[in-house]
Amino acid sequence: MEAELVKRQGVPYTAIPAAGVHGVGLRSLPGNIAKLVRGVAASRRILRQFKPDVLLFTGGYVAAPMAVAGRSIPSLLYTPDIEPGMALKFLARYASIVAVTAPDSRAFFPGRKHLEVSGYPTRPELTRYDRDEARRSLNLNLDQPVVLVTGGSKGARSINRAVTANLNDLLKMAQVLHLTGNLDWPEIQAFQAGLSPELAGRYHAYSYLHDMGSALASADIVVSRAGASTLGEYPLFGLPAVLVPYPYAWRYQKVNAAYLVDKGAAKMIKDEDLPKQLVPVLSELLDDVENLNAMRAAMRSLARPEASQRLAALVRDLAGANPQEGNA
């Protein structure tokens, strides 16, 4: 996915062989280790050609070969989730500076001297709309509450099906802006066609929305997974959340969700409990304006809109301390 995004922006891109080793079966382990060795060799060739002043890592096993090959070059490691994975902990050994989204991540880097709480970087264009402008752009009623439901770019089947199973009740309390992902889109379209005209006018489904900022700005509350972006985007909009951590992604999403719950900015529902709890939880929140406003304020207090600039400044500072002739 990163390759396609980078190429779309016209930025030169070179792939590096890599593979994970944690949780890999014995049959696959030798091959994955061989890929990592080839990745280190490929990384050394890239470094000789490009001669970078600084390296920036955002985690994942794909970064391991470059971290090993470039261990003598100043580097910044940014860890987006509250709890870093094993790959991030490995990369931290080579990093000159570790940047984290929230202060709670300090506990996972004990004794680390050069650690910066930068916040989660967000795109400036996300906030180009105010609430009313965002709702107009999505044909939403300005005066009725809006529940945003999203499972990320690929969607989340359990969330999608919990919504359709409870849609009549949901639409009685709010407009529903539902970003389904491509996988379940045909099923959602078929379901949508069976709605009464009155309910259909309150249900706004999209397989994917390029302008995510309009969805976030228009919503009163969001129902979603608890990936790292929730730690940056929801605070930016002061958007209260009902978080449903993905149950098969180790514990990173659960830790992210627990962090926001502890701050008073979110509620958490287990994936298997969502069909039964979705309506009661949303109904309670939407009926309690005072509590919802308190959650909104708590979420907004976690915002660090300058995170992108801070990370860029750290990269520039590291590069300035290690200038290479004619390089970027």
UniProtKB/TrEMBL annotation:
Name-wise, this protein is UDP-N-acetylglucosamine-N-acetylmuramylpentapeptide N-acetylglucosamine transferase
Q: Which part of the chain is the Glycosyltransferase family 28 N-terminal domain?
A: 1-98
Q: Does the keyword Transferase apply?
A: yes
Domain of life of the source:
Bacteria
Glycosyltransferase as a keyword of this entry, yes or no, is yes
- Keyword field: Glycosyltransferase, Transferase
Say which species the protein is native to.
Longilinea arvoryzae
A biological process from GO = carbohydrate derivative biosynthetic process
Annotated GO MF terms? hexosyltransferase activity
Q: Which Gene3D superfamilies match?
A: Glycogen Phosphorylase B
Q: Where's the Glycosyl transferase family 28 C-terminal domain?
A: 146-310
